């Protein structure tokens, strides 16, 4: 099939590369010329495991190309997939649909022949209906169906998740559109469940899922606070809970709170939609508020560890919102650093992938180290804020010799507590 993907961000690019790898002919469209120029020149614009090799393979095979021209991308396509951003509205915090509507306005006139317009962006419930009306208005002759095709990939595992989706949710009542989406995902059909539902249900599934996961994270963080007071260990508690099939082991890792480009904005958007529809969603409200406080709590722990030291040096390991990505949008690490910077402290930070994107947010307010050891040189405390595997491989002796004070606040429970205590560190994890 011929597919056009609009938006070459964290969703659009892995989706485009993945569909090309399945054998489709894919053209990726972005309005940012610098991104398209970089991609055309063979420079990948974001970090995801295995993305780069697949990208080059498929460009070489002639299945993957890039353009800023809506006409070039859309006119040939059997399916147009919209993957543009839906950030929170600056005032109301609802999902801002302006990029979706701008993309739809631009694409409508270029539709030729029967085309499925699939909305992969996370959109307010009812957007599919509005998009359909908009296309009909802009191009009354167009022969098309609008489908909701929400994306569930996890950043850091985008390529893996593309090829191994838990489910592909498709919101449509059109048999023709259904057949097109089945054809698109045919090579993955045996590996996954394709769930065909109404368009509004598909749009809701995305928000319902993300809000649920955010609540789960908030829940385990509250439980971690409880464990700290009672002498239980959250790692053991989470393990015991996770063995229950009804609960499952995932998203039970106590930490510094959720972040990234999805959970914070999607919970806010869900809450906004609930209010608009006069429905109370107290759990979501509580998790949003609890998550905000969580980052302040973590900053307080770090500051407590350097209490009494004049202009302490704080080493930070991890800036990305999670491991496996360079994405720092709504990163708990960045928020925690923001809290720390209200005080007279010096911060040296290290992240294996996210230095550049963190710099866009934090600028010169922190020093950026090139290695985890450089960051801890003469530090009074080490704060671990992202769960990168490489942090687990530390040489404890070396760490010990480099730090001024042997203190660790491990907001990800990444290090072995006993080993750190045996080496004379004061060690504080979460919930243990
Ligand atoms: P992103 O900001 O990384 O990428 C969006 C891209 O769209 C940008 O490159 C931007 O230049 C481009 N764009 C915007 N308007 C355009 C237009 N009119 N024409 C062409 N290109 C345009 O966003 P993202 O993280 O990839 O998220 C995209 C959508 O997918 C959002 O709705 C998000 O909620 C959803 N989503 C994201 C994830 C994730 O892990 N990032 C997971 C699931 C769903």
Characteristics:
about 425 residues, six-stranded parallel beta sheet, 17 helices, alpha/beta, binds nicotinamide-adenine-dinucleotide
What's the arrangement of secondary structure elements?
Layout: E1 2-6, H1 12-21, E2 25-29, H2 33-40, H3 51-60, E3 64-67, H4 70-74, E4 79-82, H5 98-108, E5 115-119, H6 127-138, E6 144-148, H7 158-163, E7 167-171, H8 175-184, E8 193-197, H9 199-230, H10 234-242, H11 263-276, H12 282-305, E9 313-317, H13 332-340, E10 346-350, H14 355-362, E11 367-368, H15 372-376, E12 381-384, H16 396-402, E13 407-410, H17 417-422, E14 426-428
Parallel strand pairs: 1-2, 1-4, 2-3, 4-5, 5-6, 7-8, 9-10, 9-12, 10-11, 12-13, 13-14
Helix pairs in contact: 1-3, 5-6, 9-11, 9-12, 12-13
The structure holds nicotinamide-adenine-dinucleotide (NAD).
Total strands: the figure is 14
Q: What's the helix count?
A: 17
Shape: globular
Low-confidence stretches: none
Strand order of the largest sheet: 3-2-1-4-5-6
The biggest sheet amounts to: 6 strands, parallel
The proportion of residues forming helix, as a percent range, comes to 40-55%
Give the distinct bound molecules: nicotinamide-adenine-dinucleotide
Mean pLDDT: 97
Distance between the termini: 53 Å
Instruction: Provide the gyration radius in Å.
Output: 23 Å
Strand content: 5-15%
Structural class: alpha/beta
Could you explain how this protein is built, in words?
The structure is a single chain. The chain contains 17 helices and 14 strands. With 432 residues, it is an alpha/beta fold. The strands form 3 sheets. Strands 3-2-1-4-5-6 form a 6-stranded parallel beta sheet, with helices on both faces. The mean pLDDT is 97. Helix content is 43%, strand content 14%. 48% of the residues are buried. It is globular and about 75 Å long. The chain binds nicotinamide-adenine-dinucleotide. The site of nicotinamide-adenine-dinucleotide has 27 residues, from helix 5.
């Amino acid at each position: 099939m011929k597919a056009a993907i609009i938006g070459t961000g964290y969703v659009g690019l892995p989706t485009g590369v993945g569909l090309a790898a399945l054998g489709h002919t894919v053209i990726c469209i972005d309005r940012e010329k610098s991104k398209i120029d970089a991609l055309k020149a063979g420079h990948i614009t974001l970090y995801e495991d295995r993305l780069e090799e697949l990208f080059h393979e498929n460009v070489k095979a002639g299945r993957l190309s890039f353009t800023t021209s809506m006409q070039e991308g859309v006119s040939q396509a059997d399916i147009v997939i919209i993957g543009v951003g839906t950030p929170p509205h600056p005032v109301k915090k609802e999902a801002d649909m302006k990029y979706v509507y701008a993309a739809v306005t631009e694409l409508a006139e270029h539709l030729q022949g029967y085309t499925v317009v699939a909305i992969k962006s996370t959109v307010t419930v009812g957007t599919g209906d509005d998009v359909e009306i908009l296309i009909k208005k802009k191009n009354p002759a167009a022969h098309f169906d609008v489908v909701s095709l929400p994306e569930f990939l996890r950043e850091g595992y985008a390529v893996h998740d593309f090829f191994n989706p838990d489910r592909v949710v498709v919101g449509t009542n059109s048999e023709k559109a259904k057949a097109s989406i089945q054809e698109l995902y045919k090579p993955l059909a045996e590996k996954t469940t394709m769930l065909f539902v109404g368009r509004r249900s598909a749009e809701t599934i995305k928000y319902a899922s993300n809000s649920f996961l955010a609540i789960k994270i908030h829940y385990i963080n509250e439980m971690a606070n409880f464990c700290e007071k009672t002498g239980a260990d959250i790692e053991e508690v989470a393990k015991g809970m996770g063995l229950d099939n009804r609960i499952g082991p995932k998203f039970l890792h106590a930490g510094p709170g959720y972040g990234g480009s999805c959970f914070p904005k999607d919970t806010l958007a869900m809450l906004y939609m609930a209010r608009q529809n006069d429905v109370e969603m107290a759990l979501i409200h509580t998790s949003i508020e609890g998550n905000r406080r969580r980052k302040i709590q973590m900053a307080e722990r770090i500051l407590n560890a350097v209490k009494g030291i004049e202009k302490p040096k704080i080493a930070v390991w991890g800036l990305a919102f999670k491991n496996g990505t360079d994405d720092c949008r709504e990163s708990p690490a960045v928020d925690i650093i923001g809290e720390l910077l209200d005080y007279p402290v010096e911060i040296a930070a290290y992240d294996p992938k996210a230095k550049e994107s963190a710099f866009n947010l934090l600028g010169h307010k922190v020093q950026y180290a090139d290695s985890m050891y450089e960051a801890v040189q003469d530090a009074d405390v080490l704060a671990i804020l992202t769960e990168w595997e490489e942090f687990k491989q530390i040489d404890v002796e070396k760490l010990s010799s480099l730090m001024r004070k042997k203190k660790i606040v491990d907001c990800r429970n990444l290090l072995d507590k006993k080993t750190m205590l045996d080496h004379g560190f004061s060690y504080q994890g979460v919930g243990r």
